[in-house]
Design goal:
Length: 123
C-alpha cells in the first residue's frame, strides 16, 4: 500500500467476483432459478447442473463462508448448509469438551490425588 492510500478495500475489490465463477455451469442461467425458485425445494434440473459443475467445491466453500448466502450453492440448499454448519459446530464442541474432561496421556489430570469435599450449607 502506498503511504497516502486509504486502508479500506477498493470498491472494485468489494464487488469483484471470485475467479472460479467464470467456470460456473450455471453462469448466465439467471439468478432467480438458483435463489428464488429453489429456496427450499431445489428443482432436479438445478441440482443436475450443480452435479456436473467443475467448480462445485469452490462454490460450496464460498457459500459455507457466507452465512447469508441464499439459494443453491455447490449443489446444496440453505437448509442443508445450515444443518452442516450446526453439525460441524456440535462436533467441534464435543471435541472441545473431551479435551477438557480427558487430558492427553501423560498430562496431569488436574487431580493431584487429594480429594476435595464440597459441603452444601443451608442457612
Ligand atoms: S455448483 Fe451449482 S450453483 Fe455453484 S456454480 Fe456450479 S452450477 Fe452454479
Amino acid at each position: 500500500m502506498k503511504p497516502n492510500e486509504p486502508d479500506w478495500p477498493s470498491l472494485v475489490g468489494l464487488f469483484a467476483r471470485p475467479s472460479w465463477m467464470a467456470d460456473a455451469a450455471c453462469r448466465g442461467e439467471g439468478h432467480g432459478k438458483y435463489v428464488i425458485d429453489v429456496r427450499h425445494a431445489p428443482a432436479e434440473a438445478v441440482l443436475a447442473t450443480c452435479a456436473e459443475c467443475a467448480v462445485r467445491a469452490d462454490c460450496l466453500a464460498y457459500a459455507m463462508a457466507q452465512p447469508d448466502a441464499v439459494g443453491v450453492w455447490g449443489g446444496t440448499t440453505e437448509e442443508e448448509r445450515q444443518v452442516q454448519v450446526r453439525q460441524e459446530r456440535e462436533v467441534a464442541q464435543r471435541q472441545q469438551r473431551r479435551k477438557v474432561v480427558r487430558p492427553a496421556h501423560g498430562e496431569p489430570s488436574g487431580n493431584d490425588g487429594r480429594t476435595r469435599s464440597t459441603r452444601i450449607r443451608s442457612v
